[in-house]
Amino acid sequence: MFSLVRKDLILQKSSILLLPVLCAYLAFNTSILWIGIVFSIVISLNSFSTDEKSPIHILFNSLPYTRKEIVTSKYISAFIFTAVVAIAIFIGNYFINGMIVDWKVFVLMFGIVLSVISVIFPLSYKFTSNQLLMVSLVLSGIFLVAVNFFVKNWIDQIRAFIGWLLALEGNQIYFMMAGAVFILYAGSWLLSMYIYKKKVF
Amino acid sequence: MENIIELKNVHKSFKGFDIKNFSIAVKKGFVTGFIGGNGVGKSTTIKMIMNLLQPDSGTVSVFGLNYKEHEKEIKQRIGFVYDENILYDHLSLNQMKDIVKHAYENWDDHLFNHYVELFDLPLKKKIKTFSKGMMMKASLTMALSHHAELIIMDEPTSGLDPIFRRELLEILHQLMQDGDKTIFFSTHITTDLDMIADYITFIHNGEHIFTKDLIEIEEEYAIVKGGLELLDREIEQEFLAVRKSNYGFEALTANKGRAEEVFGDMVIMEKPTLEDIMYYTKKGAEQHV
In the CATH scheme, what is the code of domain B3-214? Predict the structure, then answer.
């Protein structure tokens, strides 16, 4: 199975080219959390979409791998991609801004990235990207209209909420959050395995 | 004789198409050609043998093992070729090898290089620039580089020009001379089979019609040609299918001896091609409906 993870890393080699771009963002003082989330999700989803063509699944399902291993490798790869981005941010920020990133930022970053992936992966195993694109366009339209109607200045509120989270003194809430995300990620992994087991090629 | 693949009472239903009570056995150490028209269930059967699809009921075993408990063990010993490109087309063959080789315990780089040289394949060009023939050779190279005992191919010769086809068949023939391998491949180009197949498995509309060796087919089947006055309802039942014209009839029998007994010298008997057998079987199925 680790050869499947290795395959994902090899195929995403070109994404490493994105890391200097990430450093450029750091130099412009953009939010570290925001950069981390965007880069991790983009690389993980890019890795997923490279394999989305159905003939590639015929190849991997004909090789000596089980369907469980194929799904599990994707979840491990996504975790590794997020870790690579976190390390790049840590090093980049240290050398560019001369600052050490607070560990809470990374916990929050992992929490948000892995939660998003937990939702996207099972959906991507179930539906085609065209179907997902249509549904997400419609849903985000509805969301934006609804949120603007009911919650004024919602972006400021999210920002304030994240600021409040980062400013919290106790560590307990972070451990609880990490645990909840871990359970969500594991649940998503089980659901994806169930969906993929039934998939017809 | 040991069976390397066994399907027993397999059922698989799709919208508008069924594989019904399907049982076949593929013998170890031989080339078995899997024939049938388009859309009769050849690819579905191959997908079930590769565990890409699971039957609704019935059992599939390969090397005497079932997929539920021995999936990886079985696949380690199979080399596969499909009629479409299943490799990453934005990678080179060298990069693709680097991905595939780690899946196999018995991957042999020397063997890989041997086939790359034999097929004159470029290692550094992107696979999307390959012609259909090169693509097939690249797939075959992957299938043959890990000492697979069983080679399964779905329409490997379709879309290939006659020279490529002949080369491919030569290689498969050579492969059978070298070692104790088994080849199972589907095709609707029946002339390919005369060159290398030992056994023929014939499928029609999701049903297994027969599995026989080529000599058996020659001994049992015949095209019978004669005048219309020789036919009556009872005699027509003896044939798999009959084609009538103003000049006489042409029919396929699966019991050559019986036809000789009934007609003697009054008819002309000819050796049928596999294509004749496929054609008349389809026609017979329609007539009986």
Answer: 3.40.50.300
- Judged by DSSP in three states, A135 sits in helix
**Could you give the CA distance from residue B41 to residue B37 in angstroms, rounded to a whole number?**
9
The strand ranges marked E within chain B are: 3-14, 17-27, 31-35, 57-62, 65-66, 78-81, 150-154, 182-187, 199-204, 207-213, 222-226, 241-245, 248-253, 268-270
Banded model confidence at residue B285, pLDDT cuts 50, 70, 90: low
Its ipTM equals: 0.85
The answer on pLDDT for B289 being more than 60 is no
**Residue ranges of the domains in chain B?**
3-214, 221-288
Specify the DSSP class assigned to residue A198.
Answer: T
Q: Distance between CA atoms of A125 and A143, rounded to whole angstroms?
A: 24
Contact, B104 vs B177, CB < 8 A?
Answer: no
Is there a contact between B99 and A64 if contact means CB atoms under 8 Å apart? no
Which CATH architecture group holds B221-288?
Answer: 2-Layer Sandwich (3.30)
Tell me the average pLDDT across A177-189.
Answer: 92
* Structural domain harbouring A39: 2-197
Residues comprising chain A, all counted: 201
Q: Do A62 and B80 touch (CB under 8 A)?
A: yes
**Cβ atoms B62, B74 nearer than 8 A:** yes
**Of B7, B169, B184, B192, which is closest to residue B78 (Cα–Cα)?**
B184
User: Would you say the C-alpha torsion B63, B64, B67, B68 has a positive or negative sign?
Assistant: negative
User: With pLDDT > 70 as the criterion, what percentage of chain B qualifies?
Assistant: 97
CB contacts of A50 in chain B (<8 Å) are 88
Chain B interface disruption, residue of A13, A49, A62, most B CBs within 10 A = A62
Contact flag A58-B52 (C-beta cutoff 8 Å): yes
**What's the pLDDT score for residue A159?**
77
pLDDT, tens digit, 9 for 90 and up, residues B32-80: 999 988 888 898 999 999 999 999 999 999 999 999 899 999 999 999 9
Query: B93 near B121, Cβ under 8 Å?
Result: yes
| Residue from B99, B101, B141, B155 to probe the interface with A (highest A Cβ count within 10 Å) | B99
